[in-house]
Automatic annotation (TrEMBL):
Cofactor: FAD
GO-annotated molecular function: deoxyribodipyrimidine photo-lyase activity; DNA binding; FAD binding
Keyword DNA damage: no
Site (Electron transfer via tryptophanyl radical): W284, W337, W360
Protein name according to UniProt: Deoxyribodipyrimidine photo-lyase
Keyword Flavoprotein: yes
GO BP: any one term: response to light stimulus
Residues holding FAD: 207, 219-223, 251, 254-261, 350-352
Keywords in alphabetical order: Chromophore, FAD, Flavoprotein, Lyase
Family annotation (InterPro entries): Crypto/Photolyase_FAD-like_sf (IPR036134), Crypto/Photolyase_N_sf (IPR036155), Cryptochr/Photolyase_FAD-bd (IPR005101), Cryptochrome/DNA_photolyase_1 (IPR002081), DNA_photolyase_1_CS_C (IPR018394), DNA_photolyase_N (IPR006050), Rossmann-like_a/b/a_fold (IPR014729)
Cofactor: binding comment: Binds 1 FAD per subunit.
PROSITE patterns found in the cross-reference section: DNA_PHOTOLYASES_1_1, DNA_PHOTOLYASES_1_2, PHR_CRY_ALPHA_BETA
């Protein structure tokens, strides 16, 4: 009988192990109302990706079956209607995904259907490499990266040329694409993702030079396509591995961070609420007013405000800006990382539990950083990674008239100039350790 491919965050036909094997495949996507918490930005990207995938499948003689409800119940029901002997789903790591897999396991046993858990969300499945001493996951990145880079990766799954769908199944309507919140967010879909990957591979060799240059803005911007599986992480990693330029190698290392946080999450699914190192999770302040200034990009520290405004405009933020803004919230203002993480999660199109929570905990010092007490001096960061202030002026129009690096310290401008700017003075630090403000 056919096999039900229960798509989740693998919205592609290239290198998708769900489509492997000789049996006819019935691709199913279930919109789960329990995921109603998906932000407007991510919902829009998801719906565009579904529409794109449906188009691709139709062109190959198949279709995407779309249902609303509980993915487990819908997959079992469709298996019953089509006489499918197997349901396949990609292994995934969040608490939600692990619960879904457990329920699928129980229900397929009850209905005598085979369950196949396929790889494909990460380059290397969590648990494929393990540290010594019986631990289930790596806590430190560098040894993980060594093991990851030297592990045997699976081969790419062939792209199906033709997919026959069993007759008589209503495909179901795609929901209308909702408006996103961020006007400049990237459009969803495998077609768009592949176009961008192809362009990216042409400039990847420069990545080691300028991935931290905020004004140059020369990172791949593929994160949302990886988040929804419009691109296969393995395919991207293999392309980078085949290129021995320092840029491609630096890029490969960044991709390994993604796998790293996925294997942390597999072992520790409560990552978005519980600290990895409880002893470091203390003394947070709860200051709604300061939190709101940070969210709105009105802290009075230009590099922080530029990042926070890019987040809202584009549903994306440069990695360097994510580090600076997250460190500013947790280490400068002393505010709990959890509201910060939630704010990012609301806006980021690439927002996902492992990467968002893992990086927030890293920055707050409760996570996998081997130097958890490090501080980021935002001004020094700005001078280094936005040397001429181009990034700041791009996102903070109130400061457009301030030339060069002076834009990073408006509090040092002559009084008359400063008073003419419609821009706030810097928020006070909770511990008065902001020596950089007076420097
Ligand atoms: P590139 O620089 O081109 O990197 C290539 C790919 O490597 C990325 O697409 C991403 O998949 C992976 N990658 C790069 N850096 C990291 C990293 N530090 N951790 C994990 N994977 C990485 N990334 C997300 O995908 N989702 C999130 O929700 C997320 N939240 C973050 C929150 C904070 C506080 C910080 C500091 C970082 C966060 N990141 C997150 C990681 C990183 O900022 C983004 O992956 C990156 O900026 C995406 O842009 P890009 O595709 O151009 O990245």
């Amino acid at each position: 009988g056919p096999r039900i491919a229960l798509l989740t965050r693998d919205l592609r036909i290239h290198d998708n192990p769900l489509f492997a094997g000789p049996d006819p495949v019935v691709p199913l996507f279930v919109l789960d109302p329990r995921l109603g918490g998906l932000s407007a930005n991510r919902q829009r990207f998801l719906h565009q990706s579904l529409a794109d995938l449906r188009g691709t499948l139709r062109a190959r003689g198949a279709d995407l079956v779309v249902r609303h409800g509980d993915p487990v119940a819908e997959a079992i029901r469709l298996a019953g209607r089509t006489g499918a002997s197997t349901i396949a789903v990609a292994g995934d790591v969040t608490a939600y995904a692990q619960r879904r897999e457990r329920r699928l396991r129980a229900e397929t046993v009850r209905h005598r259907i085979q369950l196949e858990i396929t790889p494909g969300v990460t380059v290397l499945p969590p648990g494929a490499v393990r540290p010594g001493g019986g631990a289930s996951s790596y806590r430190v990145f560098t040894p993980y990266f060594k093991a990851w880079a030297n592990a045997g990766w699976r081969g790419l799954t062939a792209t199906p040329a033709n997919l026959a769908m069993p007759a008589g199944i209503a495909p179901g309507d795609l929901p209308a694409t909702p408006a996103g919140e961020s006007p400049d967010a990237v459009p969803g879909g495998e077609t768009e993702g592949r176009r961008r990957l192809c362009a990216w591979l042409g400039q990847i060799s420069r990545y080691d030079d300028d991935h931290d240059d905020m004004a140059a803005d020369n990172t791949s911007r593929l994160s949302a396509y990886l988040r929804f599986g419009c691109l296969s992480a393995l395919e991207v990693a293999l392309a980078a591995r085949a290129d021995d330029s320092p840029g491609a190698q630096a890029y490969l290392r960044q991709l390994a961070w993604r796998d790293f946080y996925y294997q942390v999450t597999a072992a520790f699914p409560r990552l978005s609420t519980q600290p990895l190192r409880p002893a470091a999770d203390r003394d947070w302040r709860y200051d709604d007013d300061a939190l709101r200034h940070w969210q709105d990009g009105l802290t009075g520290v230009p590099i922080v405000d530029a990042g926070m405004r890019q987040l809202r405009a584009e549903g994306w933020m440069h990695n360097r800006a994510r580090l600076i803004t997250a460190a500013f919230l947790t280490k400068h203002l002393g505010i709990d990382w959890r509201p910060g993480l939630q704010w990012f999660f609301r806006w980021l199109v690439d927002g996902d539990v492992p990467n968002n929570s893992g990086n927030w905990q890293w920055t707050a010092g409760t996570g996998n950083d081997t130097r958890p007490y490090r501080r980021f001096n935002p001004v020094r960061q700005a001078q280094r990674f936005d040397a001429q202030g181009v990034y700041v002026r791009r996102y903070v129009p109130e400061l457009k008239g301030v030339d060069g690096p002076a834009v990073h310290q408006p509090w040092r401008l002559p009084d008359a100039v400063r008073r003419g700017l419609d821009y706030p003075g810097p928020l006070e630090s909770h511990r008065d350790e902001a020596v950089w403000l007076r420097a």
